[in-house]
Amino acid sequence: MTDIIHLLPDAVANQIAAGEVVQRPASAVKELLENSIDAGADRIQLVIKDAGKALIQIIDNGCGMSVTDARMCFERHATSKVKKAEDLFAIRTMGFRGEAMASIAAISQVEMKTRRHEDEIGTCISIEGAQVTNQEPVATSPGTQISIKNLFFNTPARRNFLKSNPVEMRHILDEFQRVALAHPAVFFSLHHDGTEIFNLPKGNLKQRIVHLFGNNYNERLVPVEEETTIINLKGYIGKPAFAKKTRGEQFFFVNNRFIKDPYLNHAVSSAFEDLLPDDSYPLYVLFIEIDPSKIDVNVHPTKTEIKYLDEKSIYAIMKSAVKRSIGRYNISPTLDFDQETGFSNMITHKAVEDIVPPSINFNPDFNPFASDSSSTSGYASSPRNYDAKPSAKNWGSLYDITEQPVVEQTSIYADETVLETKQKQYMQLHNRYIVSQIKSGLMVIDQQMAHERILYERFLVHLDDRKGASQQSLFPQTITLNANDFELAKSLLDDIKSLGFDVREFGKNTLVVEGVPVDLGSSNINETQLFEQLIEGFKNSQQELKLSKRDSLARSLAKNSAIKAGTSLGQEEMNTLIDELFACKTPNFSVSGKPIIQTITLAELDKKFEK
């Protein structure tokens, strides 16, 4: 029998490795950006075309490479960052495995121009499918320029699995933001299809957060700083009032490396306990500095998971530091036992003779049991004189309600969800529920969930027929979104217009809302807040429930524009709401699948009264 085990060709091995290292264009962007950081660049430009499928170009002013290094960097396991096994436990660089460039070159067409600062001429190398097609000297600026064209050109199956351009671009933006946040002292720029998305000047961390997410984040940030023998912690958290319904603005960095850690995320969330509802997530950008020998970053191919030597201590430090920052900046009440100022305002500097003692005035003829026309005499002569009789005036009005006409109920369907009456009369309970008498007892309807169901089915129809009517605003509102949300909004623009929004692009990361759906009524509407909630709700529906784009949009707008609990409704408004609810295809259940209608039978009421 012949031998069957053999070594894989380098081209095949590189393609297999590329499946783990380069999963989508954003993976290549991450590797290239981190290489530029490791090269000491303080100016990095990223150019994207067709969401990275056609072109990914990185231009930096780092240290550059010699002719030999330029050729060697495309070999498997070729790296300048690790020389022996012990170096794995003292890693300060972003990359160290030596797999990224070889993997990228195996599945794309790569052109690299590089020159060291001390050299007069650089090197240009062209590679296609792991094969070097050209190498020659070239005049180029100091640093490195890498162009990746036609990613996955020789692996069509992987290319077919890529998502739409807006989705892939949002992944690229995520990776770009993470690297830019970790290095605020480095200039970054990002261009997509000829449009500048980001231009981030050098600055501090707070300035970088504001440049990335928008000027309105300046007032949302609370600093966090803690130094211990185990870790040094610094960064910013967001105020609870600006927490969002979706994740996406939570960033942990360990030695400037972005990581995902549910355990540490729980530490931050527990610090916000009782300040946020369960389904809200605060903003945080936190940096942990720790001895590299106490962590292991060689755990996952994407290097976003880390093992810690003392995980519980880090959890406790993280939680207490965030909690202290929350209290220090008056987000939650605190007690300072070192400085009690409760009596400071009561100290007076007046002379003793100038202080007037307080006096008490009272009416000695006051009688609480006297009627309006009766005298108040007799009570002052004796505190125990209760001879005066209480007034019996208007006692009969207590029973006037029994003289109210009884609403005549005519019929109720067997399932008791559709009510037909000659004269519909509903009662609002605590401005939250609508109550009506039915043949077998009582029917209670949640007004908010009922309105959500009505709007949801109406918006679905608009998305199908593309005929949502718009009510023009007197003063159009300008909305500035962060780059990720702006890309998402652009991809949804046609569907958003179908719902009845009159919205258009207006410059960089900015939209103008000139009209809102007529279905939202004539009440005062904050277009900016409503649109932001629409985008936020859409992301939440897609992340948590994995709904289609159509359902996610309709659900988000319905939940954010429905009348809320605590809204007072008139009789006509309640009649209209109930009529429209029972005209829905699914009147019994809300958008979230919870019951809208509850019935209480006479038998259940009798049982309550022990009859």
TrEMBL record:
User: What range(s) does the DNA mismatch repair protein S5 domain occupy?
Assistant: 209-327
Gene Ontology MF terms in the entry: ATP binding; ATP hydrolysis activity; ATP-dependent DNA damage sensor activity; endonuclease activity; mismatched DNA binding
Which positions fall inside the MutL C-terminal dimerisation domain?
A: 426-569
Q: Which GO terms describe its cellular component?
A: mismatch repair complex
| Superkingdom field | Bacteria
* Record field: transmembrane: none
UniProt keyword terms in alphabetical order: DNA damage, DNA repair, Endonuclease, Hydrolase, Nuclease
One Pfam annotation reads HATPase_c_3
Q: Name one GO biological process term.
A: mismatch repair
Function summary: This protein is involved in the repair of mismatches in DNA. It is required for dam-dependent methyl-directed DNA mismatch repair. May act as a 'molecular matchmaker', a protein that promotes the formation of a stable complex between two or more DNA-binding proteins in an ATP-dependent manner without itself being part of a final effector complex.
> PANTHER family in the record, alphabetically?
DNA MISMATCH REPAIR PROTEIN MLH, PMS, MUTL, DNA MISMATCH REPAIR PROTEIN MLH1
Entry's NCBIfam families? mutl
Q: Which HAMAP family match?
A: DNA_mis_repair
Family per record: Belongs to the DNA mismatch repair MutL/HexB family.
- Name of the protein in question: DNA mismatch repair protein MutL
What organism is recorded for this protein?
Pedobacter alluvionis
